[in-house]
Amino acid sequence: MELSHTAQRFVLHWGEMGSAWGVNRTVAQIHALLYFHGHPLNAEQIAETLSVARSNVSTSLKELTSWNLVRVTHLMGDRRDYFETSVDVWELFRTVVRERKQREFDPTVRMLTELVEGEGFQQETPDAQDRVRECLRLMQTLGAWSEEMMRLSPSTLEKVLKLGANVQRFVRGDKA
Known about the structure:
α1 (5-20) packs antiparallel against α2 (25-37) and α3 (43-50) packs across α4. The protein has helices at 5-20, 25-37, 43-50, 54-66, 89-117, 126-151, 154-172; strands at 41-42, 71-73, 82-84. It folds into two domains: 5-84, Winged helix-like DNA-binding domain superfamily/Winged helix DNA-binding domain (Arc Repressor Mutant, subunit A); 89-172. Strands 1-3-2 form a three-stranded antiparallel β-sheet. It has seven helices and three strands. 70% of the residues lie in helices and 5% in strands. It is mainly alpha-helical. The longest helix has 29 residues, at 89-117. The N and C termini lie far apart (46 Å).
């Protein structure tokens, strides 16, 4: 499959950004390809299009599947696995937020809770105790807020995001 100039730029940039997001470049490029293309592709098509090894594609697809960003599908009359991603940007956003929260944020909240409730915490200096409790309070507040935001419909969430930006401009005194 030949990629247009636009598709190439999108896929390459998404791959470069993947590194900044803590994601392997090929993983990000495969996701970008599936998103941009909008139709299921098999691993051979992906490998050929991106000029990467089939084994790299396989490993990357497993990672994307574990993040719930890619799902396996099948085409009538074809025994191969095909892979697709949501073309709904809001669904992808929710998936990434949910997965990152479960993998990164929630374990930190659990650890902080265990520290505060654990043996020996009272032996720490009052200042250290206050800092850990404040960190836990912030994390719990952010977690509750993100849960509420994820319950909103995409259109309502978009309005809330725009409202937040407008509030910030108002508070700073910026002119519209």
